[in-house]
Amino acid sequence: MPAPSSAPAAGSAPLRDALHRAVWRWHFYAGLLCLPFLILLSVTGSLYLFKDEIDRSVFSYRTVVAERAGPPLSPERLVFIAADAVPDARPTTYASPEAPDRSGVVTMAGPTGKTLVYLDPYDGAVLDRVGREEEAMRVVRRLHSLSFFGPVANGLVEVVAGFTLILVISGIYLWWPRRQTGGVVSVRGNPARRIWWRDLHAVTGFVAGAGLFFLAATGLPWSIVWGDQLRAISNRAGLGLPTELWAGVPVSRVPMGEVLDTTGWTLETAPLPRSTARDGVPIGIDRAAEILTGLGMPAGYELALPEGPTGVYAAAAYPRDVTRQRMISLDQYTGRPLVDVRFGDIGVVGRGIQYGIGLHKGEYAGRINQFLMLAFCLATILLAVTAAMMWWKRRPKGRLGVPAWPDDRRAVAGVTGLVVAMGVAFPLTGGAILAMIALDTALLGLRRGPRRPATA
């Protein structure tokens, strides 16, 4: 008769194997959905990490100027030159040079869309004119968010981010050592064998899994459903938008994110203040810029020009140092600051997310931050390639090769229940999970075929 202590271990082995197969099936499904998108996100993310470096090298002819001893032209003069360069449009924003050797940029809105006019701030020479939506780094950014393909595709980012979290968690479970001698921190075999690709996939996931999880989690705040809900909830709780700074200030129905590109996540939906309409003369762009400089606005800020008699001069700065982010709105007649938001004024949730986004974009900790995020992007591409090779080498001929469900229904129900619970936290991902369960159930039913009626 076996010792009592060995019975639980022996009895638990089949359940462990069943759980492993159930987790493997969901890991396969999550990878099937995510990996093509993760490759696109990783490639575009790698490029955007080095946005400034690309602008200063590939596009130096329009972003870099020769620094000179004399004072630069006034913002108003540069806006006038831009308006003359694009005569059928009106100026909407002015971006001040980030450094003495950088160009200024004026955005012109015309009947065919917005045009960016790059100007030498010292002599007003027009360095380039490019459609705002065709600007290289903006195209990369829109591809990264999938907004390039429309709002529905943009929603896929949330689905992919949610499934990526499932991929990482299930991948850790599958990686966890279970009596094997390799595939934990070492790679067995050679590229001709499937075990080599399996081990390379597992070890890469072990090394880079936390980074992939971080990238997915810090990308979620920008999603169109979960991110908007998080912003709304944190604002209502006083943990995001500092609503008290808007107390007693007349506001419009226009969100800050519609007039400024650089408001940051927390203030994107904040209402744009209004000037009190009067017969007075607006202070002008030069005076607005002078006031902003006097208030300590960082160089490189974006300044939106007033729209109509109640419009304001709205400025936002989004430097690489997250703690220096700032947003100021000025009354267009008096120059009085209506709203002035520093990073420290934002609630704890807003600050945490802004830190996360800064790290996600490689903006906070210099080269170390950039290259660490680049390593995670490259590791994600490697995970996708090794996963595809693993599948290719194990797939049955003429079939998709989905891992079979275990016979133990407890394992199936338990693992699927946990996946569904994660879907509750992320609505769009949850909808995709339910659709996958329905499709999987339908396909299993078709494979089994109709049941024969029982005979007496």
From TrEMBL:
This is PepSY domain-containing protein. Keywords: Membrane, Transmembrane, Transmembrane helix. It comes from Methylobacterium platani. The lineage of its organism: Bacteria, Pseudomonadati, Pseudomonadota, Alphaproteobacteria, Hyphomicrobiales. It comes from the Bacteria. The chain crosses the membrane at residues 26-50, 148-176, 206-226, 371-392, 412-439. The keyword Transmembrane helix applies. It holds the Pfam family PepSY_TM.
